[in-house]
Amino acid sequence: MKKFKCHKISDGRVEAEVTISKDPIMFYLLEPETGKMIEPNHDFTGRSMADKILLFPSGKGSSVVQADGLFQLMKNDKQPAGMIVQHAETVLVSSAIVFEIPLVDKVDPEFYETIKEGDRIILDATNEEITIL
Asked: Is 62 a catalytic residue?
């Protein structure tokens, strides 16, 4: 087990598999019934974030499409279990808080060198800690 410090944005604690996107995410371009990315030419296309901890650089798109995209995922129980973002912006922050999805940023840089797709982690936003199991 390896632990890393982070900065809490939205409270919560979750244990799940991590899934990684190198591209910013527009939640409106995810299929609500599956949680799969449908945006063409995106590095996450065809993969699902449902019940996983999503690691990504930032959100993208207007406030309406971001919030509605997450809402549609939640209606179908296909939202990410938690989120780790490199660059938090207002829409993503407010949506995570409203929808009660644990969200952190400002993670120890070594974390990004260590984490791999599919690793099982504990995201403890409340205590500002990420543990790779």
From this structure: yes
pTM, entire model:
0.95
Nearest of 27, 78, 75 to residue 51 by alpha carbon: 78
Q: Which structure tokens are listed for 122?
A: 């504990």
28: which DSSP letter?
G
Instruction: Give the DSSP H or E segment for 17.
Output: strand 13-20
Burial of 48 (0-12, 13-18, 19+ CB in 10 A): middle
The secondary structure of residue 27, as a DSSP letter, is G
pLDDT one digit per residue (tens) for the chain, 133 residues: 999 999 999 999 999 999 999 999 999 999 999 999 999 999 999 999 999 999 999 999 877 888 999 999 999 999 999 999 999 999 899 999 999 999 999 999 999 999 999 999 999 999 999 999 9
Annotated active-site residue in 48, 58, 62, 95: 62
| 104 secondary structure, DSSP code | E
The dihedral built from the CA positions of residue 62, 65, 71 and 73, taken in this order, carries a sign that is negative
